Amino acid sequence: MILDILKYGDPRLEQKADPVADINGQLKELVENMFETMYAAQGIGLAATQVGVLKRLFIMDCSGGKDPEDRYVFINPRIITTEGEVVGEEGCLSLPGIYLKVARPQRIVAAALDMEGREFTVEVTDLAARCVAHEIDHLDGQLMLNRVSPIKRDFAQRKIRKLVKAGQW
Ligand SMILES: [Zn+2]
Predict the structure, then answer these.
(1) For residues 89 and 150, what is the distance between their CA atoms, to the nearest angstrom?
(2) All domains of the chain, ordered by start, with CATH?
(3) Is 69 one of the annotated active-site residues of the chain?
(4) I need a surface site. Which of 59, 100, 156, 168 has the fewest CB within 10 A?
């Protein structure tokens, strides 16, 4: 089932998500639906927060569904180490049409639980590192708008206000 993706302006996007306490059937269904939703929207990452579920969980697939090995579920993720910094253009399914240059770590080592409740550690670089940092931000109620200068933020917010007025948001 394709879920509705919350757009910027919805207060839930700015709330901190709670840890997942139980990996049950309901959570498995949510994850399946999130993958379907993310692929339909042509995204590479999606946080539960973005579909209105304030739980610390996100999915990622930098291959866009082409490589099953790139399909990740991160439950209760935490960043262990980060290294370097890369400024790159970033988009967000909750901010459609908005692209901002955001600084993110070049390399991240993160740990999380998988769908079986087992802890795993993964090292990600470049695009995947950008994605992990972006999605963990969502779980903390942070949007990429908070990661750019006030001038760039104002510019993006003005563009969004115009889209809202035009009924296109
Ligand atoms: Zn996003």
Answers:
(1) 17
(2) 11-165 (3.90.45.10)
(3) no
(4) 168
Distance 157 CA to ligand 1 centre (A): 15
Q: How far does residue 85's CA lie from ligand 1's centre (Å)?
A: 19
The CA-atom distances, in angstroms, between 12 and each of 15, 75, 138, 159 are: 5, 19, 10, 21
pLDDT tens per residue across all 169 residues of the chain: 999 999 999 999 999 999 999 999 999 999 999 999 999 999 999 999 999 999 999 999 999 999 999 999 999 999 999 999 999 999 999 999 999 999 999 999 999 999 999 999 999 999 999 999 999 999 999 999 999 999 999 999 999 999 999 999 9
Among the listed residues 14, 29, 89, 135, the single catalytic one is: 135
Q: Is-above-0.85 flag for pTM?
A: yes
Distance CA 88, CA 152 (A): 14
Ligand 1 centroid to residue 165 C-alpha, Å:
22
- Three-class SS of residue 73? strand
